[in-house]
C-alpha cells in the first residue's frame, strides 16, 4: 500500500490568502496543516507521497526537506489548468504503479488514527465518514447513506441531503478500483472524489464506511480555518520576541520570532502572530496574522491578515485581508 496526500489545489475559496500560500502549508498553531497529516502517517510504516502543482512546488520542496516523503509535481501553474483529485490520482498511478492506495486530502484535519482506519480495511473501498449533525451544512459535502457500515448511496453536494453523514477526504482504494481510474476519466466524468464514489457504487463496487467523531475540519473557508486553530492550539508557543511590560498575553497563542508586542496590546486567546510582526496598542484574538505585518491601535477578532500588511486605527471582525494591503482610518 502507498499513501498519497493530495495537495494540488489552488484554494480559491480562501483567496487572497492562498494566492501565494499553498493551503496545505497554512499554519494551524505551531505546525502547518500538512504536518498534522504527516504525523498521523508515521505509525503506518508506508511510503508517503505528496501530490502538488508546479506553481507551489518550491514551497513544498522547502517544507519537505528532511522529511521522509516524496513529492509528485503535476505540470500546472493556474487554477484553470489544474488536474482534479482523480486526474492527479491517475497521474500518480502512472508514476508509482498499481497498488492499494490510502488517499488523503491535504486540507483535512481529523481526529482519528490512520492505523485504526487501516485496521478496518478488508480489501473493499473504505471511506472515513463524519456526522456533521446538520442537514444545511451537509449540502456542502458528499453525503453518505449507510446501512450499518456499508455505503448504500452517495450524493455530492445534494440540495436535499438524505443524511448528515459526510465523506471527509480519507479513502482506501484497492488495486482493482485503482485500475478503474483511467476508465472513469475517459468517460468524461467530473474530476472529483465524490463523483468517483458515486460512479463506483453504480458499477456495483462495495464501499465500506469508517465512522469517527471528535473533530474534523475541511480547511475550505476562513471560519473552518479559525475553528481548527481553536481546536488544535492547546499550548502557547512563544519564540524570541520583544514585549512591552504593559502588554498582556492570554493563552493559548503562537508568537513567532522577531515579533514586537508593544504598548498596551492584548494578544489572545487563540491568536497566531507571524515572524517579525509589529503589534502596538492593539487587541488580537481568534485570529491569524501572517509575517511582517504591522498593526497599530486596532482590534482584530476572527480575522486572517496576510503578510506585509499595515492596519491602523481599525476594528476588524470576520475579515480576510490579502497580502501587502494598507488599511487605516484617519488618526
From TrEMBL:
Secretion signal, residue range per the UniProt entry: none
UniProt GO MF annotations: transferase activity
Source taxon at top rank: Archaea
Chain ranges of the Mannose-1-phosphate guanyltransferase C-terminal domain: 249-313
Pfam families given in the database record: GMPPB_C, NTP_transferase
Protein name stated in the entry: Bifunctional protein GlmU
InterPro entries, sorted: GMPPB_C, Mannose-1P_guanyltransferase, NTP_transferase_dom, Nucleotide-diphossugar_trans, Trimer_LpxA-like_sf
Positions of the Nucleotidyl transferase domain: 2-234
Keywords: Transferase
Keyword Transferase belongs to the record: yes
Family: Belongs to the transferase hexapeptide repeat family.
Amino acid at each position: 500500500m502507498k499513501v498519497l496526500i493530495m495537495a494540488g489545489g489552488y484554494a480559491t475559496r480562501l483567496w487572497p490568502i492562498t494566492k501565494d500560500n499553498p493551503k496545505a502549508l497554512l499554519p494551524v498553531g505551531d505546525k502547518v496543516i500538512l504536518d498534522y497529516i504527516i504525523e498521523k502517517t508515521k505509525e503506518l510504516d508506508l511510503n508517503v507521497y505528496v501530490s502538488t502543482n508546479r506553481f507551489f512546488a518550491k514551497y513544498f520542496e522547502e517544507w519537505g526537506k528532511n522529511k521522509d516523503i516524496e513529492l509528485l509535481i503535476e505540470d500546472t501553474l493556474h487554477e484553470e489548468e489544474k488536474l482534479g483529485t482523480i486526474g492527479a490520482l491517475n497521474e500518480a498511478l502512472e508514476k508509482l504503479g498499481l497498488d492499494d492506495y490510502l488517499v488523503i486530502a491535504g486540507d483535512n484535519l481529523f481526529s482519528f488514527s490512520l492505523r485504526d482506519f487501516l485496521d478496518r480495511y478488508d480489501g473493499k473501498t473504505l471511506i472515513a465518514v463524519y456526522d456533521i449533525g446538520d442537514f444545511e451544512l451537509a449540502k456542502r459535502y458528499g453525503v453518505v447513506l449507510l446501512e450499518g457500515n456499508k455505503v448504500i448511496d452517495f450524493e455530492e453536494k445534494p440540495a436535499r441531503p438524505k443524511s448528515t453523514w459526510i465523506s471527509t477526504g480519507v479513502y482506501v482504494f484497492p488495486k482493482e478500483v485503482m485500475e478503474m481510474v483511467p476508465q472513469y476519466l475517459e468517460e468524461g466524468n467530473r474530476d472529483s472524489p465524490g463523483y468517483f464514489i458515486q460512479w463506483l457504487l453504480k458499477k456495483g463496487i462495495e464501499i465500506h464506511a469508517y465512522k469517527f467523531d471528535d473533530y474534523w475540519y475541511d480547511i475550505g473557508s476562513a471560519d473552518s480555518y479559525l475553528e481548527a486553530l481553536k481546536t488544535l492550539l492547546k499550548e502557547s508557543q512563544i519564540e524570541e520576541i520583544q514585549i512591552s511590560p504593559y502588554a498582556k498575553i492570554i493563552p493559548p497563542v503562537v508568537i513567532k520570532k522577531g515579533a514586537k508586542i508593544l504598548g498596551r496590546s492584548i494578544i489572545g486567546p487563540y491568536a497566531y502572530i507571524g515572524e517579525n510582526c509589529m503589534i502596538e496598542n492593539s487587541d488580537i484574538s481568534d485570529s491569524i496574522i501572517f509575517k511582517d505585518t504591522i498593526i497599530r491601535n486596532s482590534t482584530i477578532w476572527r480575522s486572517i491578515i496576510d503578510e506585509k500588511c499595515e492596519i491602523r486605527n481599525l476594528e476588524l471582525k470576520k475579515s480576510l485581508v490579502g497580502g501587502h494591503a494598507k488599511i487605516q482610518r484617519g488618526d
